[in-house]
């Protein structure tokens, strides 16, 4: 999984280093699939790393599972902000929203959980990412005045 994530990051970066006219000519055909795949693999890497640590009976430094889940949600949200504001990649953010909605849906269906910290964190991450998308989309492109 890590190899795939690293290779996708390399491809994604190389797509940005092409000539300017080439980037704009085939932005959707070239970058869109890698953007979607990179977002999904980012979420899957976090999920798989968590599963490995649980399988190894990691003691979580004495902190609760909910704490680590909220921390991972915050981490993936910060990564999403990077893609929204630095890369102007809305599709990456949309896939993360989809994943967060899936996490939220699964957690809401689990009535055995009395601690709602993860659900609250997921809703907060969703709201903040949506707000970031709206703010980024509302910015007007800056034009050079000569």
Count the domains.
1
User: How many strands appear in the DSSP assignment?
Assistant: 0
Rg: 18 Å
What's the total helix number? 6
* SS-based class: mainly alpha
Q: What is the terminal-to-terminal distance? A: 48 Å
Please report which band the strand proportion falls in: under 5%, 5-15%, 15-25%, 25-35%, 35-45% or over 45%: under 5%
Percent of residues in helices comes to: over 70%
The coarse silhouette is globular
Largest sheet: none
Q: For the residues shown, what is the average pLDDT? A: 87
User: What are the segments in which pLDDT stays under 50 over at least 5 consecutive residues?
Assistant: none
H-E order: HHHHHH
Overview of the structural elements:
It is a single chain. The chain has one domain. 77% of the residues lie in helices and 0% in strands. It contains six helices and no strands. It has helices at 2-16, 20-25, 27-55, 65-85, 90-109, 117-138.
Quickly list its features.
single chain, 0% strand, 146 residues, globular, mainly alpha
What's the gist of this structure?
The protein has 146 residues and is mainly α. The chain is 77% helix and 0% strand.
Structural topology:
Elements: H1 2-16, H2 20-25, H3 27-55, H4 65-85, H5 90-109, H6 117-138
């Amino acid at each position: 999984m890590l190899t795939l994530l690293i290779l996708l990051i390399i491809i994604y970066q190389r797509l940005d280093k092409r000539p300017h006219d080439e980037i704009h000519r085939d932005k959707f055909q070239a970058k869109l699939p890698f953007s979607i795949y990179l977002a999904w693999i980012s979420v899957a890497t976090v999920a798989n790393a968590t599963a490995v640590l649980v399988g190894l009976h990691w003691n979580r430094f004495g902190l609760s599972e909910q704490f680590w889940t909220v921390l991972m949600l915050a981490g993936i949200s910060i990564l999403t902000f990077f893609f929204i504001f630095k890369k102007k990649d809305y599709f990456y953010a949309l896939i993360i929203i989809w994943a967060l909605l899936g996490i939220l849906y699964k957690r809401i269906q689990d009535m055995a959980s009395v601690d709602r910290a993860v659900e609250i964190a997921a809703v907060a991450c969703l709201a903040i990412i949506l707000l970031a998308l709206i703010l980024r989309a509302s910015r007007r492109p800056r034009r050079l005045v000569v």
